[in-house]
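Figure S4 source data
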Amino acid sequence: MTNVISALDDAIKNRKLLLLMIDDYTTIHSTRRPKGLKTSQANNMCTIIFKVFPEIKAITRPPPQFLHSRDGIKPHDLANEICSEKQMVKLSCTFASCMPELTTSFFDPLLERKRLETHDYGASTDVSYMRKFKNVFLVDFFMQPLKSKSNYMEALTRVFNLDKLREYLSKFVVLFPGDHPSQFFPRQIVYGILSEYLMNITLNMPVTQEELLSLVPLIGPLHIDLNADEDLVLNYHPFIKSLYESLFPNRILAVKPKPWRIQFILEILYGGWTLIRRSVKAVFHKCKDLQYGTLINFLDNYCPTVLCSYNILFKTNNFSDYYDSIIRMWVMMYCFRRHHYRKSLLIWLFLVKYWEGNAFCSDIFNVFKNNLNIIDESVVEYVHSVIRRHTTDGASEKTLSDTMKAIFGCGPRQENFRNTFTPERNYVFSRVQLKYLHTRVAKILVSIFSKICSSPGESYSLPRSKGQALDCTMYILPTLFGEKPVKSYMLPLGFQCDKKPDVNSRCDYICVAPEDAEWQIFEGCWHSFHKECLKDLAYCPICSNHLNNVILSLSVAANTSFVNGGSGDDNENDNEQVSGSDTDDDSDDEMEYDNLGVSTNESNIENMLNTINLSIMQLRPESPTNSSCLSVDNNSECDDRGSTLLANVEPPKRSPHCSTCHHTRQGHGKGSANAKCPMCPNNLCSAHGRRKPCTCIWHISQQNPIETIIPYSIVKFNNVSHVKEYILSFCQSNIDSQALGSNACTIIAVLIAINFLSDTAWFSQHNLLATLDSTFLAYCYQLFTEGNQMYDNLDESQLNYCAPEIIEHPELGLAEVAERVEEYQFNNFVDFLLELQMLSLARVKLAFVLIFSPDKSMTLLLNELGESMLIDSHSHLDTGAIIATASDNQLHYMVNYIQEMILRDWGPTVQPPFDVTIVKLK
C-alpha cells in the first residue's frame, strides 16, 4: 500500500494522468466439457487497479455539469453526426472500400503475428508501451461480485476511502474504461450524484462523495473488440464452421471458440478474401443476389472492421479512423440486436463529440485525440489471466489474494511482467505458411461464389411464425448456411429497414428513370438506385432515414437507463465476452499450422492464385431483371449485332496534311523552319518534298480503286475460345518484300492507338467485330508502312523504344496530338485483366500499348461497348501480322488469348513482367 500512496502522491504533485480499472474475476476457468460429477464452486472477486502515465498530463477537472452532459445523450445531435453526409457516404460503402490503405498492406507477417496474439494474454513477443505492466498499482482485491449498482457502489467506496485517490479525484478527471457492467452501473452512480449536485449547487450545500463526479466510465476498446469478434463468429457460425472444417479436415470448430482462435479464424478468412477481392468485385459488380450481398457484407465490411478497429487503428493512435470504425461497430451491433452494446457505443460516440464541442472539456478530448491508445482496460485482463494460470479451479480467497500480492509485490518482476509470469507460446507462421493458408481459403471461397453464380435466387424468406419478433424475418440462404433458417439480423444493413432491398430490381427508390438508366449498388447496405433517382446523393437515403430513427429511439432508451435510473431494456440477455475466460467448448490449445502440409515452393502458390483468379473471371452472375438488358450468347461463333463504333466500309477520308510539303501530318514535326517530315529530303519539311507523292491511303485511293491498291489478304482465320483471330499476309518486316523497320513495332502500336482514338481518322469507320475487308487491310498496311518509315528516319542507334519515348520523341511530332495517361507493369495476366475490367466500366474508348520483353509491342483497343481488338504487326506462324477481336463482356477471353498466343508463337522467352501504357489524345 505504501507504493500505492507514493505513486498517487507523485501523480498529484506532478500532474500525471491516471487510469482506473475495476473488473470482476471468477475462479471457474475450466472448459465446459464435464470431466466428472462434481460441480464447480465459483468465487467472485473484485479487482481495483490503476495505472499512471508519467509522460501524459493529467486532465484538470472541469465543473461536473460540463464534464457530464446533464441530460445524457442529446439524440438529435448524435443523429445529425452519425447520419451526416460524410458518415453516410462511408457507411454506404464497405469498410475495405473506404480503407484500402489498411487492407492492401494487411498481411505483413510480423504485423499479422502480433494481431494473432492480441487475445492470447500469455504470448511472449514484445509489447507496446500501452500494454507494459510498469506503473500499475493494486488498490484492492476482495471477494465481491460485480452484478449490480450496489456491488459497484461498494467497490467505488473503497476507491473513495483511499485518501490520496480521493484527493486526486478532487483535482483531476479519471478515465474508467471497462466492460459493459463497469461502464453502466458506475454511470448510474455518477449521474445519481450529479443530480444531487445540480440541486444543491445553488444552495451551496455539500454533496456526498462529490469527488466521484471526476470519474468518466466508458466502454473499453478491448471489450468492444472481443464482443465484436465473438459476435461475428457466433452469428455466422454455420458458414465459418463449414469453411474451417474444409480447411482443417481433422478438426471441429467449437460452438464458442476461444478469443485467440476467433482472431485466427477471422485473420485467415479475410486473408483469403483479399487474394480474390478484386476479381470477385469486378465480375459481380452488378450482381444483387442476397447470398452474394450477405457474403460481401461479412468479408468486405464486418471482417476488416473488427480486425482493424482495435488491432490497428486504436493501437496506432489513429483517432479519426478509429472513431469512424466505432460507428461501423455500432451499426453492426445494431444489426445483430446487441441490446447493451448498441447503446454503450452510442454513449461513447456522443461523449467524444460532446467533449470536442465543449470548451470546458478540451483537455479530455485532447487525450482521446492525441493519446487514444492508453485508454485501454487490457492490463486488468492480463492480471486475471496470470491469476488463472497460477491457481486452480475454485481457489480460495486467501490463495487468490496471495497470488495477486505476489504479482504486485516485486518491482523488477512487475516491470518484466510477461517474462516472469507467462509461459512462452509459439504462434509463428512463416510467410509461405500464411500465404498458403490464405490461398486455400481463397479456393474455398471461389467455390462458394461459383455456387451462388450457378444457382441465382436460391435464397428466400420464410412465413412469419408465432412469437417471432416484429423486426425479424427468417431467411433460407442454402449456399452459406445450409437449410438452417437465418435471422434478417445477419443480412446487410438495408434488410433492417422497413424498405428492404429488392434483389430483382435495379432501383429501390421511387423510380422516375428509364429502365436502361445507369444504376449502382451501395455495398454497405445493399440498396440500389438509378443515379438519376439519387439526385446527386452519394449515399443511401433509405438507410440514412432509418438510422436516424434508430438513434433517436436508442438514445432515449440509454438515457432512461443511466440518467433517470430506469431499466431501459438493460436487463435483456446480452452475453458479455470476457477476455481471460476459458469457459468455452474449445479445449484444444494447439495451433492449426501443424496440419497444414505446406509446400515451401512459393511459385506453386502463385500458380494456384492465378488459376483461382482466372476461374473467377469465367463466372457470369445475373443482374436484376426488371430493366431492359440485352443478353449475350457467349458461345456464338459470330456477332451480328449493330454497334455505334462499327459501320459499313466507306471510302477513306483525307487525313490532315502539311500545307508546305503536302505529306500527311502524322509523324510530322511542328511548323517551323526545321520541322521534321519522314517523307521529305533529309527528313526536313520543305516545298521540294512535294516532288515525292504522299503515300497515304487517301492519295492512293484517288489514283486506284481500293480493291487494286492492296493485294494482301487474310491468310487464315481461327476461332480461339470466343476470340476471332485473323492472320494477315503481311507484317511490319515484309512490307514491299523488304526487311524494313523490323524494330518499328512500338511506333506502329502508338500510331494505331492515335488513329483509333481520333474521331476523324480512318479507324473510327470500322467495326471491331466486323469481318476484315480489303479496305481495313489497306489501312493496316498503310500504318505499318508509315511506322517503318518513321523508325528508319530516326537518326539514332537505339533499337527499341517504350511507348512514352515514342510519344514524346522530338523528331516524330506525336506529342502534339497524343499523351500518355498511365503506365503500368504487370507481373501476371490476372492483375492485367483485373485492371482492364475496372477501366472498361467507364464505357469509353481506350487504347493500350503492350510491350513484352525484350522487343514485342502491340496495341489493345476497347470501344464504348466493351468490344476489344488486338493488333500486332509482328510475323506470326511464319506468315504475317495478327488482328484478334472479342465481343463485349469477354475481356477475360481476350487476355487468355494474348497469353496463349505469346506462348504459342514466341515461346517462354517472352513472358511477364510486361509494360502497359494508356494513350490519350490531347
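Figure S5 source data
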Amino acid sequence: MSQSRAPKVRVPSYSSLAAMKSQAYPEKSNWLGLGGKGHSASGHWRSALCRLTKEPDVDRCLLNIYVDVSQEVLTRLISLTLPPLQESVLFQTVYIHLLRQSDIRPADNSLFFRKDCIVIYSTEQQRWMASNNAEPVYLQFSKSELCNLWISLLRSYAVPEIYGRWLNRPNAGGSELQGGSYRMWREVQLTVASGRNLGISKLYDPSQTPDEVGQDVELKDIDVYCEIVLNDAVCARTTTKKGLGLPEWHESFMFSDLPPFENMEIAILKEKKVSKPSLLGKVTVDLVTFRRGEVVEGWYPVQSTNFSSQLQLGEIRLKVRVTEELILPHSSYSTLQQVLNTRNLLQWLQDLENILHIKTLLQPFINLAISQESIIEQIQDAAVWEIERAISSHQTIFRGNNIFTKTMEKCLVWYGNAFLEASIGNVLRRLLAEKVAIEVDPVRSGKPSKEVVKNVDLLIFWCREFWDQIYGAKESCPKEFCALLSTVRNLVEENGRRAELLPQMQQQRPWQSVSAFIFLRFIVPGILHPHLFGLCSGLPDPAIHRSLKLVAKVIQSMANLNAKGDQKEISMAPLREFIKQNMSRMMDYLAVVSTTRTTLYSTQRPDDRENRHAMNNLMVHIGSLPTLERESVAKPPSLIDPSRELAIITSAIIRYSRDVNNKTRARKLDNAALESLCTACFEVEAEALQRVNELAIRLAQERRRASASAAWSQHSAMISKSPSLGSIPNSKSSLPPTAYMPSTLQSHESHPRLLSLPEPEPGPAGNTPGGKVDIGRIDIGEGGTTRWSESTSENPDEGAKRKKSFMRGIFSGL
C-alpha cells in the first residue's frame, strides 16, 4: 500500500461533497468545460489523502481519495499533517487496474493555472464516487518530483498499450518473456498563434483570400479564448485576448502519452460580462490522417456550430506536430545504442543537421543522455573544441546559435525550472498582478518630463526587486549548472592565456562566457517571455511586456559587466549608477554559479517516509513485470523513456535518409559514421516490420479460424434439430463426446485464449474500460494508426492496403 498526504483534489461544485461547508470553500466559476466537450463546471480544491492499495491474491488495484471537509483549506498551503482519517470522507475510488496508462496523464497548467497536476480519466465502470459526476479526477501535488512519482506509480498498475501479448516472445537471453511484440506512444505539440476576422460571418469560399474576407466588414470588439479538446476531453485553454477580431496568443501546448488518435478540436469562445461564454466556432484537425513527425503551420478556418458548416467565422493560425511511434523492447535497440555511444552527441547532432538536414532531434538526444547520466560529461567534452574555434572577440563568445549553445540552453531549461522559479517567479508575477507599465523614453510615452522621471525611479525600484531575488537564489543553483558553467569558465580562461589576450580581456572574458549562458540564455529570456517558461499564463499585455523588456535590459547590462549600461538608448542613462553599484554583487553571483559542487548530478529522492515507501513499492512492482510492461513505465524523477527516445531518433533518421529507389535502405552518404547510424536504424525498422507482419498474420489466421468454428457450430446445431438426421445411427449428431471432430473445431477447442486476447482497447480517453478485447475487433487502419471497430466482413485487398499504409506511416511518414 502507498499513500500521500500532500495532494489537493478538485471537487466539482455540483457534487454532494461540495455542498458541505460551502461557505468555507469559495471559488469563482470559470465556465470551463473540463469533463468533456460542452460541459461547464466550477469546483474547489481541498486537501486530500490518496491511498493506493493492491488487493492480495486478486489482480485489483484501488486508488481511494479521502477529502478533508472539516477545515478551510483554500487559504493555506498544503499541510504536512492532515486531520485523522475519521474526519475525512471517501470522495472517490478509482479502479486503476481497469484503466489504460493513457488515462493517467499530467494535466496542462492552463486548465486551472496550477502546476504539478495529474488528471485521471475514467468511466462509471472504472470508479465509485459519492455523487453522480462525470468529471475526471484532478490531483495537485506540492512538488514536481512527487507528481512524477505518482504518475509512474499509478501507470505501473494500469494497462499499457501493448500489442501481441499472447505471442509469448522470450527475451534474447531467454530468461523472461517480453510481454508482447511492441507498444505505441503518441504526442501532439500545438501552438495557437493568432486569429483574424474572428466573428465575421461569411460563407466559406476556398478561392477567396483571408484579406478579401475582411474587406468592407466592420470588425467586432470581442474577447475570445480557445479550448483544446482531444478525443472529446478538454485538455487545455488559452488566455483571454481582447481585440477587434485579431487576437495574438502565441501559446504552446504539449500533450503526451495519448490514446489512439481521433480528432483535435480548438473551440473559440467569446466571453461575456454578465453571462457565461458562448461558442463562436471551432476548428477540427483530423489527427488520424495527419502527417507524422513534421511541423504543419497555417491558417485554419473557424466553422460555425449553429448553422451550416459552410459558414466561416474567421481563422486562427496553428502550428501542429503529431508524433506516433511504435516502440520495441529496449534490447532491440542495442546495436543502435552501441553506434550512438561511439561519438559525442553534439557530433551526431552536427552531422544530422548539416548532412541530413534534421533539426528535430536535439531534445531526444539530450533526453537519452540525461537518462544515462552522461549529458554533463558529453557537453564538457564538446566545450573543449567549441572554445578552441570560438571567435577571439570577448564580445561575441557564445552569443551565436549553434549546436553547442542550443544544447546548453536545453540543459539549462531541463535542470533549472525550480531555480528559475526561485530566481524571478514571485517578483515577476507581482509585477504582472499590479499591471506595472513603465516607459522611460519620452518619445514613446509622449508624457511630460516629470512623468518620465517618475518612471525612471519606478524602473530602478523593479530592477532592484528582480536583482535582489536573483542574487538571493544563487545558492540554489543546480549542481548540473555549476559543473557546466565551471567547465566553460576554466576553458575560456585557459584559452585566453594561450592566446595572450589583453589583461582586461583575459579578466572579463571567462565571466562573460558564464553570463552568456546563465543570463543571456536563461534568466533574461525568462523575464522577457515568462509564459514560455511556465512562470505565467499567456503573453503579457504590450504595456507590461515593455516593462519587462526594460528590466531585462538592465539585468543583461549588469551580466555583460558593462558599467556604462545601454549606450544605444539615451533614456536608459539614469540606470548607470544602479548598474555600477551592483557590479561587485554580479561578480560574486557569477563566481557562485560557476563553482563545481561535490557531485555532478543532483540526487532527487523523496523527502518523507511515505513517499520513499511509494518509490520502493514502485521499483519492486515494475521489477516483477514483463519486459514491455516494465519499460512502459517511465522512471521518476525524469520520466524519460529511453526506448521511446531511440524510437523517435530511428523514425526521423529513416524518414530523411531513405533511398528513393530502395525503400529498405539509406541513400549513399559521404560519412562513414552517419552511414553506420542509418544502417542500425534500418535494422530496427526491419525488426519492427517483421513483428507487425507476424501479429497481423496471426490475427488474420485466428479470425478465419474463429469464423470457421462459428460456422461449424451453427451447422451442427441445425443438424441436431433435424428429426430425420437424429434417427440415422451413423450421423455426427449421435457421436459420443470422444468421437472425431473436424480440424477447425478441434483447433478452436485447443486454443481457447486466442478468442479473447489480453490486448488494450484504444478509444476516446475515459470512454472505454481497458481489458480483454475480442479478436474480431482488431483492425489495422490507415495512416500509421490502429483502429478498433466491431467485427465486420471486409475486402481482403482493403485490409492489405491498410496494413501496408500502417507500417509505412509509422517509420517513414509516407
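The chain has four domains: 2-158, 182-327, 378-593, 688-714+742-812. The longest strand covers residues 311-327.
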